[in-house]
Amino acid sequence: MPAIQLTKPALRDFYTALVQKPSAKVDASALDQLIAIVGDKKGGLFGGGKTSDDVAKELKTAPDLETRLAIAKNGLDATETTDLKALLADSTFAARLDPVVSNFLKALVGLEPLARIDSMSTTATVNKVVADPKSPEVQAAARLKEIIKSGKLQSYYDVMIGATTNPALKAEAEAIFNALPVVKPGMSGEDFVKAGLWTMAPRGIAEMQKSARYLPGRQVLVETTVYAKIPAGTSPHDSTNNGKIGSYDANGSKAITYRATMVGEDPANKNNFLVKVDGNDTPVSISKQVIFKHNHPHTVGRENIKNDTQRDIPWSWGSKWKVDYASPLAKAKMCEIALKMDEFVSKIDFTKTKTEASTGAIGVMFGRGDTAKKMVEMQKSCVETVFRSIDMKYPKGTPFSDAGRVTDNERDVAKQAIRGTGMCVQQSAVFGALLTPFMDVLGVDAQYRSGNCFRNIKGSVDNVFAPDYSSGHGWWQVTFRPTMEMTVTDRTWNQVNLPLDRAYGFPYGDRYGSSDIQGYVAKPVGATDVDVSGKVSAATFERQFSRAGDGRENHIANTQGG
């Protein structure tokens, strides 16, 4: 019998078993047993009961400690609360507690808040970096979170950019925005937690950052000879030819195609990769440098990085805007994005993206099973959070009609994000500037791409990729690590996370990514970026084709007011 008085039989049994084993610890797995015991719930007059077994099943899919806490609280009653407090006060029990479990149980009964934890396992390690509630930055972030929930943040922005006049509100906004933490490139997941912006960092960031970018099975853009003709008598916008445009043709036009999958290294030429291009049973040998050119993540050139918070942001033809991540407006916008991301970030666990290869195969696969899909969806939700945080209109009319909206002559990225004006390349520049500080910790590789649109090919029936009647366009090509799934996010075409096949497919995708925006450069290829050993691969998927709506049909200029 326990030396302390416990009312609930299951808790008494748990304690008795614990004290009978001197080496027993109350770690993560034992915590789930405790949650199952106290999380059960007797059925009321109309039922609704929940057994310990029911709770145990819920815990198998609980992504984090906050979810576990909610499950436990849902079934906790006054008697169980008293029992848990008695256990926590018992020296024998307290000595067996893992620090994470101790904090959890105290949070459950209201003795202290739940700590911000980076990860938890059966050898649970407390993330020593937590948000200090006494820090002015953390307090300002908490206040900003309240303003976001109230739906009044735009009024604070408007008074700061001069769109409205309210001296008292402006003084309040200045005080809050000035006190906020700086969100800038190079931050770690722990930095976001310490700043009070994220409940916890994604688990397995270091593992993700060491994962291969170039591995068998992943989709890549390549330069090769492809089928590029429009059949005689058909319209350039006729989908009949979708199945051939961009597929391999030894006698075709040289172009960049998305219809390619990495196979491995070319044994006859170590400087090349073998790539399977649709339409050809034999893999094509492609220069590694060409593959890196069209698939490796971008950063702004060194000449555009002024210091750790100030950057010039190129958008086209040598033109640049500016961002100072330490300015009050930029801090507010970046913290707004980080706070809105938190619900998705807390569910990202890069340690769970691997799935074992099929029976008889060797190695590990970054798959598209349920777990991997959920992970990518969280990453996509973070990208969409950045996308939705931008309020910019396409230049339309002279003068532009919105009172208080900054024009495309305004060079401050933060002001442009709050109430701006710009074409495709300018809006993409703002999107990229806001996304950059999150890329490394979220596993988001991105390239600022530019190119022609298929709708402008006019008479180029022998080569739909020709630059005839060119009309330039700019967008971001995004790859999610470690699955290496590729998408396109395009501000002025109102598309976020559009599958690469659909974004680049002829004719409805209406994009041909032939170049990069001047002023952006590829990051150096890292030591772990290439793994063609066969020990790890990416799951391939069935080729998709563009469809109506994947082009510019919903262009922002067609839907905005003014």
Rg of Cα set: 27 Å
Which regions contain 5 or more consecutive residues with pLDDT less than 50?
116-127, 355-362
Number of helices: 19
The count of strands amounts to: 19
Shape: globular
Distance between the termini: 77 Å
Structurally, the number of domains stands at 2
Helical content stands at: 25-40%
What structural class results from the helix and strand content?
A: alpha+beta
| Main β-sheet, spatial strand arrangement | 16-15-14-13-17
Main beta-sheet annotation: 5 strands, antiparallel
Strand content: 15-25%
Q: Can you describe this structure?
A:
With 562 residues, the chain is α+β, with helices and mostly antiparallel strands. It has 2 domains: 9-108, no CATH class; 130-562, no CATH class. Helix content is 35%, strand content 17%. It has 19 helices and 19 strands. The protein has helices at residues 9-19, 28-38, 52-59, 65-75, 78-89, 91-95, 99-108, 136-150, 153-161, 167-179, 189-194, 205-209, 288-295, 328-345, 370-388, 413-419, 424-442, 500-504, 556-559, and strands at residues 222-226, 253-257, 260-266, 269-277, 284-287, 298-300, 310-316, 319-324, 354-356, 364-366, 392-393, 420-421, 444-452, 473-480, 485-490, 495-499, 512-516, 520-522, 536-538. The strands form 7 sheets. A 5-stranded antiparallel sheet has the order 16-15-14-13-17. The chain has a 3-stranded antiparallel sheet with strand order 3-4-5. Strands 9-10-19 form a 3-stranded mixed sheet, with no helix packed on it. β3 and β4 (269-277) form a beta hairpin. α5 runs antiparallel to α7 (99-108), α14 packs antiparallel against α15 (370-388) and α16 (413-419) crosses α17. The radius of gyration is 27 Å and the shape is globular. It starts with 8 loop residues before the first helix and ends with a helix.
